[in-house]
Amino acid sequence: MQLNEVIAFLESKAPPSLQEDYDNSGLLTGSPEMDVQGILVCLDSTEEIVEEAVRLGCNVVVAHHPIVFGGLKRITGKNYVERTVLRAIREGIALYAIHTNLDHVHTGVNRRIAEQIGLGGIRILEPRTGQLCKFVVYGPRDVIQPVREAIFLAGGGQIGAYDECSFMHPGKGSFRASEEAHPVIGARGERAEPDEYRLEVLVPRWKVAEVLASARASHSYDEMAYDIYPLENVHQEVGAGMIGELPVPMRAEAFLHHLKQCMGAQVVRHTRLCREEVRRIAVCGGSGSFLLGKAISQGADVLVSADFRYHQFFDADGRIIVADIGHYESERYTIDLLAGWLSEKFRTFATHKTGVVTNPVNYL
Ligand SMILES: [Zn+2]
């Protein structure tokens, strides 16, 4: 099994185009053509993790955080990033990161947190715009039917809990074939005006190329007329944070104890318990303080995240309870999520979860 098959699988789950501009998800060392002997999953691919991978016979490390963020100008081993990269290359280990793209999909980091806490009715807290396109293609009924099937198969036509969504309406096409053309309808040099259909389908931006190729392959015209429109619609399944409800309201303090226990947090730093009971909970793995306003506007009683600064605790201002459980703690179950996906999909090699706690924060 080549690494590129593993990458294609992970990227079908969390398309790389969904990562933030500052991010550096993807393959950081190694070659996509290498044979996978085993995968080690972790949050942070440190030197210790590379050592662990060697010990376990794994030549691929799948980490949530990219060890290389900005560019490396020299690799002499003077800091932990350079040492890790050097070591990985020397040991023939591929380092792959699946970071903010995994944060932004509805099946990713934040769903795992929401499930761990026991929330129901989970949805994206801040759904994104600019992720959807309208794909339009034209042709007679018998030409357009197989095209529609091919588009559905390529992942077009999904809206929330529905798939195979499309709209078709009839009209009149016109075209005149040149001497180089191979018209299915009409003759060269003459205008044809066949009855045609306009087929419209919603397609996520990252699937447009595949949908276009599939439509082309199944369309019998030598020149397929099509349009791609960017849309302003929000994509309900893509964006930052998630929000959901506890099955029954809990007393605020009891919820914080529950949170601490089920996320394995040593400390929960929280704002004043301005609610007696809590039910609607917003979550964001890692540094989620930027979602404070959104969580308040969505009526969350609590925002569970990490990396809140002193002054940001003031910003809660009695409108919400901020619960900071620590960055590592908030994302620890991402390891189970990725390892679960990989071991279910690939049976020809072993997928291991790291036994190393890479949390750089210690508590006294
Ligand atoms: Zn993180």
Low-confidence stretches: none
In N-to-C order, the SSE pattern is HEEHEHEHHEEHEEEEHEEHEEHEHEHHE
| CATH structural class of the largest domain | Alpha Beta
Radius of gyration: 25 Å
What is the 3D form?
Answer: globular
Average per-residue pLDDT, rounded, comes to 97
CATH superfamily of the largest domain: NIF3 (NGG1p interacting factor 3)-like
**Largest sheet properties:** 6 strands, mixed
Residues in helix, %: 25-40%
Instruction: Could you tell me the CATH topology label of the largest domain.
Output: Udp-n-acetylmuramoylalanyl-d-glutamate--2,6- Diaminopimelate Ligase, Chain: A, domain 1
CATH architecture label name of the largest domain: 3-Layer(aba) Sandwich
Explain this structure.
The chain has a six-stranded mixed sheet with strand order 5-12-14-15-16-13. With 364 residues, the protein is α/β, with parallel strands linked by helices. Helices cover 30% and strands 30% of the residues. The mean pLDDT is 97. The longest helix is centred in the middle third of the chain and has 13 residues, at 141-153. The relative contact order is 0.16. The protein is globular. The chain has three domains: 3-103 and 333-353, Udp-n-acetylmuramoylalanyl-d-glutamate--2,6- Diaminopimelate Ligase, Chain: A, domain 1 (3-Layer(aba) Sandwich), CATH 3.40.1390.30; 118-127 and 239-325, Udp-n-acetylmuramoylalanyl-d-glutamate--2,6- Diaminopimelate Ligase, Chain: A, domain 1; 131-231, Alpha-Beta Plaits (2-Layer Sandwich). It has helices at 3-13, 47-56, 80-90, 100-103, 109-117, 141-153, 208-218, 252-262, 292-297, 310-315, 327-331, 334-345; strands spanning 26-29, 38-44, 60-65, 94-97, 120-129, 132-139, 167-172, 175-176, 191-192, 195-204, 226-230, 234-251, 269-270, 277-287, 302-306, 321-324, 350-353. It binds zinc ion (ZN). Zinc ion is lined by residues 65, 286, 327, 331.
